[in-house]
Amino acid sequence: MYERILVPIDGSAPSSRGLQEAVAIGKELGSRLLLLHIVDNFPMLLEMAPAPAYAQTLALMRERGEEVLAKARSTVLAAGVEADTKLHDIQQETVADAILEQARQGNCQLIVMGTHGRRGMKRLALGSDAELVLRASPVPVLLVREKDQEG
Predict the structure, then answer these.
(1) Band of the pLDDT at 50, cuts 50, 70, 90?
(2) N or C: which end of the chain has fewer CB within 10 A?
(3) pTM above 0.85, yes or no
């Protein structure tokens, strides 16, 4: 049913919950996961960072992304699920567009991603990549909210 599952991860608690769900689905169905970390360097371009600082910051962002991917891949493999990783740089496209494009390129039949579950003014101010993916995705999307702090 879902031979390939795209799992966008950023190292946050919600993305870790999304990864947990994707692993459970992958284990049950024998799916292969595509772990995706997006390096969005557009905010740095807006700040007009000097070239050396820009290059150094971008290298650190990529390094952190590789660490997030390696840790997630270890978790997935330890659970007995197969996984590939992809670090993807963007500059002028949205995170949501990048996720959708990677789902197409990776022939994924499902996207599983964590969401902060923001509402009201926080969602309005910060936006929601998860909501944009959900609205535009040609394949099913499973959004996983972070567990409540109290529960």
Answers:
(1) low
(2) C
(3) yes
pLDDT band at 41 (very low <50, low <70, confident <90, very high): confident
d(Cα 31, Cα 20) in Å, to the nearest integer? Answer: 14
- The reported pLDDT for the residue numbered 150 is 45
> Residue 41: phi, psi to the nearest 5?
-100, 10
Nearest to 81 by CA among 33, 129, 139, 131: 33
Q: How far is CA 20 from the centre of its chain?
A: 13
> Taking the CB of residue 136, how many other CB atoms lie within 10 A of it?
12
The pairing of beta strand 4-8 with beta strand 141-145: unpaired
| Cβ count near 150 (within 10 Å) | 4
Can you tell me the distance from the alpha carbon of 89 to that of 110, in angstroms, rounded to the nearest whole number? 22
Instruction: At 125, list the tokens.
Output: 């101010």
Among the listed residues 93, 87, 48, 85, the one whose alpha carbon sits nearest the alpha carbon of residue 57: 48
